[in-house]
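Problem statement: downstream parser choked on a complex file, so we are re-checking the raw output for the magnesium ion run. The parser issue turned out to be on our end (a line-ending mismatch), but while we're here, posting the original submission so the record is complete.
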Amino acid sequence: MADVVVKPQVGGGGGIVIDDDWPGYSLDLFSYPAHYSGDLDCVVVPHGVIMDRTERLARNIMDDLGDHDIVVLCVLKGGYQFCVDLVDKIKALSCNSNRTLPMRVHFIRLKSYLNDLSTEDLHIVGAEDLSFLAGKNVLIVEAIVGTGKTMKALLKHVESFSPKLIKVAGLLVKRVPHNSTCLPDYVGFEIPDRFVVGYALDYNEYFRDLNHICVISESGKTKYKI
Ligand code: HPA
Ligand code: MG
């Protein structure tokens, strides 16, 4: 099989940009679980928009990697919903076009947040032996990239198993003060530096059961603080 040749993306490579001064959508415009009423400030990215953007990312990935086997490395827990939906969209393209992208899916878990603060220590669980990645095309699927420190550490770890190619799909990239040089190859949205929850992103394990990506309110933070 020929090597993958990745063409530069034409426009939209950094994702849909959501400006710092954008107030978000009022929660009254959407439905969401009643148990979170009062816990959220606004909707930043509605579920339908996430799905539409993911569909396009799937097409970009198919354009770059189509007809090659890939190993999808899903970064839990926050990345599970994005990974499921991205894999589903790629599967649909494999069924409904004359290209195909055989995928294997592997799960690893990273943990570095307590409340809304990043802790220094990064734990990688389920990534002890990734030797099966040697010579493979790997797509890392991550929900959110902030400073990029976590992504950098993970990339270094994955690289040590000598895959042929590593690409990263990140649903959200946060504009933090010390943004990294290490940005995903496929970005859904670039968002302001605010703590967001929903679509599997949590605050102390809450809010994963919320479809939209929302900004948590101060009272929400207090209610679920540990
Ligand atoms: N929300 C949830 N988890 C996170 C975030 C966030 O904004 N940033 C890094 N991990
Ligand atoms: Mg978390």
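For whoever reads this later: The two ends are 51 Å apart (CA to CA).
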